[in-house]
Amino acid sequence: MHYADPQYFITIIISVIILAFFYLWAGRRRRILSERFAERSLIGSVAPAASARRRAFKAYLTLIALSLAFYSLMRPQWGFEWEEVKRMGLDMIIAMDVSKSMLAKDVKPNRLERSKFAVKDLLRRLSGDRIGLVAFSGTAFLQCPLTIDYNGFLLALDDLNPDTIPRPGTSISGAINEAINAFKGPEKKYKVLVIITDGEELEGDALKAAAEAAKLGIKIYCVGVGTTEGDLIPTTDDRGQRVYLADKQGNIVKSRLNEELLKRIAISTGGSYVRTTQADFGLTLIYDKSISKLEKHDIESKMKKSYQERYQIFLAIAAVLLLIEPLISERKRVAQ
To answer: Does 333 reside within a domain?
Structure first.
């Protein structure tokens, strides 16, 4: 015996107990009212046709019928067949910029935290897709390999901060190359790279790396985080006081969104670019309009037991008992 919805067990037990107590209370109440009408010894002569046993039998019948109906809620099952279950989806890697420029607050609460929120929103839309995580700044590192364990992916995502990659700078090319290495399989499709960054490429050649990704069938989608006006980058000095990031000459650095580079990267691989706003980050828009419509492949295939539903048997018995109950009279035959 197997139950598809065992969580109803406690509810069923409580319901049956309540019904049993109700019938006991109703029977006792009926006796009290009868004794108010006549002495107990005279009730048999006053109402000779009344049958306490028949009333009790009808109550038991109803209680059994309702118990069986409640029991069917657990969907009892027995007997099974083996069936093949396939998981269809894409391989998608999120490349997250964790450089200090992502601490700028032109997107609230800051670029990095807003990006994390957006990825979590995206995760709720996924069903079957494998997802991985690459963190990058001056270099890139695979934080989470391609997986269908979304909870494990979230743990890696939550751990991202500007100290995740010790080398400063921004290398979008490094992120693309790391993603290329993370994708497995010879197929030149089913592979998506989403780069979330402010687009400030400080080293490497992102367009050259994007061209290599395009040859391997990897589509790159870029999400530009920040504003073209830019914002200062908050940080702390050696004394723990809040200051703004400055270059080697002591000039305050202002980080601006570099849309042009991100557009060229996306277009060169057949992907697309979107710029974030305070109202809409744009990541779910890219997924709904483009990524979700891409061709999917078998990510996982396994045999699964398919149990046969048997709750109908208990519902049928309950229905028959409830149909029989009104046909049983509470009055017994009395000799004339």
So the answer is: no
Same domain, 290 and 265: yes
206-215 vs 172-182: helix axis angle to the nearest 10? 20
Integer Cα distance of 182 and 128 in angstroms: 18
Structural domain of residue 28, as residue ranges? 2-80+306-327
- Look up tokens 């029977």; give the residue: 27
332 falls within a domain: no
Contact 95, 221 (CB under 8 A): no
- The segments of the chain whose pLDDT lies below 70 read 32-52, 84-86, 185-186, 188, 202-203, 230, 236-251, 253, 297-303, 330-336
Closest CA relative to residue 128, chosen from 175, 71, 88: 88
Same domain, 137 and 269: yes
In a domain, 336, yes or no: no
Residue 130 shares a structural domain with residue 219: yes
Write out pLDDT tens, residues 167-208: 887 889 999 999 999 987 667 678 999 999 987 776 678 999
Ramachandran angles phi, psi of 92, nearest 5°: -125, 130
The CA distance from 211 to 175, in Å, is 14
End-to-end CA distance of the chain: 53
113 with 217, same domain: the answer is yes
Query: How far is it, in rounded angstroms, from Cα 232 to Cα 103?
Result: 9
Tell how strand 191-197 and strand 91-97 pair up. parallel
* Alpha-helix residue ranges (DSSP H) falling in 38-51: 43-46
Q: Are strands 130-136 and 76-89 parallel, antiparallel or unpaired?
A: unpaired
Do residues 135 and 219 both lie within one domain? yes
* Residues 142/180, Cβ–Cβ less than 8 Å: no
What pLDDT is attached to residue 209?
A: 93
Length of the chain counted residue by residue: 336
